[in-house]
TrEMBL record:
Bias kind Low complexity: ranges: 41-76
Keyword line: Signal
Compositionally biased residues, Polar residues: 81-97
Protein name: Uncharacterized protein
Protein's UniProt keywords contain Signal: yes
Signal sequence interval, chain numbering: 1-24
Annotated spans, Disordered: 35-133
């Protein structure tokens, strides 16, 4: 029996001109960002991802952010969660996913941030089987809105 906990794209937020949509052709400058990763060991797996975009229209900046994750195990516990913070200065989103089966586990975490025209997304993954060395990975992606 496979136990799965899925949080899909659990959070999406926007700030800027909320009364009218902004189309790509309206952007004087734009930037996108994204990272994601998966870990698996034994009968466990965990994955997370985060994406973001910013657009400078000349009248201001709009941005969007999204994040999500999932975890699964054949016999054990799986969890995933996503938290997004929105304020006038920045967008931040974090997704975590973890699956455990006795001493074997897999976990993944992605943090994405957009602040002052700077975009950053970091994903960390780790899997471990008892008696073996843990397998780790760390991905950092950075971008900047041109003209900032």
């Amino acid at each position: 029996m496979i136990k799965t906990f899925l949080a899909g794209v659990a959070a999406v937020a926007m700030f800027g001109a909320m009364h009218a949509p902004v189309y790509a052709q309206d952007c004087e400058n734009s930037a996108t960002i994204g990272s994601g990763g998966s870990a698996a060991a034994g009968g466990t797996s965990a994955s997370t991802l985060g994406t973001g975009a910013a657009c400078d229209t000349g009248d201001g900046t709009t941005a969007s952010i999204g994040s999500g994750g999932s975890a699964a195990t054949t016999d054990g516990k799986a969890m995933s969660r996503t938290k997004t913070n929105v304020n006038p200065n920045q967008l931040k989103s974090q997704s975590k996913a973890q699956a455990m089966d006795k001493g074997t586990f897999s976990k993944s975490m992605t943090k994405t941030r957009i602040k002052d025209g700077e975009l950053q997304s970091r994903t960390k993954t780790m899997s471990h089987v008892p008696g073996q060395k843990p397998v780790k990975d760390n991905i950092l992606v950075e971008s900047e809105l041109p003209g900032q």
